[in-house]
Amino acid sequence: MMKEIWGSREGLCKGKGGSMHIADVDVGMLGANGIVGAGAPIAVGAALAAKLDGKGKVAITFSGDGACNQGTTFEAMNMAVVTKAPCIFVFENNHYSEHTGFEYAVGTQLDIASRAEAFGMKVWRADGTDFFAVHETMRELLDYVRAGNGPAAVEFDTERFFGHFEGDPQRYRGEGELDRIRETRDCLKKFRASVVSAKVLTDADLDTIDAEVLDQIEAAVVAARAAPRPTAEDVLADVYVAY
Ligand SMILES: Cc1ncc(C[n+]2csc(CCOP(=O)(O)OP(=O)(O)O)c2C)c(N)n1
Ligand SMILES: [Mg+2]
């Protein structure tokens, strides 16, 4: 599945340590980057290449409620519609861009999907904290775009629990907001409740998976701590492409 999809990412888990700088071209992940709003143009380029290739590939770009306001994102949406590029614009509305609430930054309409709609795209809206809603919605979008309908967009309403940076006191949040969303909008809690009640998995199954994942993280931390310190020569590693 991953090999069929090209994607770009505005940022993963930025609240915990910063991961705006990862890429893995082998799995079709063209790179998150430190420039908010740069993902959408990259994905449209990949989508146009995919269209020329004619192998049915689709590009997906993930932008936040902050990135959706960048001119680059608007231009990319326009370009995708004009060229009928097989591109999916995923807008992750987690209600905050650094310390700015989307109530301020997205304007009075408070709806990111309708902007994509205004460019002429079919749009979807779904609960980004519901695993099954996200899965089902993405399947519909992929079917739609793969059928040659041009680009499409989706706004997932979601949350972030952590601040923008390690130690961010999150004073910009409302009274009790964090406790409330941790209780009612935690995608992992919701997933657990839904699969356990449907008897697809047991609490014990999920606890085992959690323990395995924690072990993997622990092993990665131990390996990273034991790794040799970078040298002065490493400063230029992976900075320039060698042709
Ligand atoms: C062009 C540009 N402007 C500003 C920044 C600083 N910056 C880094 S993350 C961020 C907020 C992005 O918010 P959002 O798109 O909502 O993503 P989230 O952090 O919620 O995932 C900003 C302004 C940047 N990296 N690039
Ligand atoms: Mg955000």
Morphology: globular
Overall CATH architecture of the largest domain:
3-Layer(aba) Sandwich
Bound molecules: thiamine diphosphate, magnesium ion
N-to-C SSE string, H for helix and E for strand? EHEHEEEHHEHEHHH
Query: How many beta-strand elements?
Result: 7
Proportion of residues in extended strands:
5-15%
Number of domain modules: 2
Largest sheet: 5 strands, parallel
- What's the pLDDT, averaged over the residues? 90
Question: Could you characterize what this model shows?
Answer:
The protein has 243 residues and is an alpha/beta fold. The chain folds into 2 domains: 2-183, Rossmann fold; 186-227. The chain has helices at residues 39-53, 71-83, 102-105, 113-118, 131-146, 177-184, 187-197, 203-226, and strands at residues 5-9, 58-64, 87-93, 96-97, 100-101, 122-127, 152-157. It has a 5-stranded parallel sheet, with helices on both faces. A two-stranded antiparallel ribbon has the order 4-5. A hairpin with a 2-residue loop joins β4 and β5. It is globular and about 50 Å long. Mean pLDDT is 90; it is low at 1-18. The structure holds thiamine diphosphate and magnesium ion. Thiamine diphosphate binds at residues 10-11, 14, 34-37, 64-67, 94, 96-98, 160. Residues 64-66, 94, 96-97 line the site of magnesium ion.
Record keyword descriptors for this entry.
alpha/beta; two-stranded antiparallel ribbon; five-stranded parallel β-sheet; Rossmann fold; disordered N terminus; 2 domains; 243 residues; binds thiamine diphosphate; single chain; binds magnesium ion; 8 helices
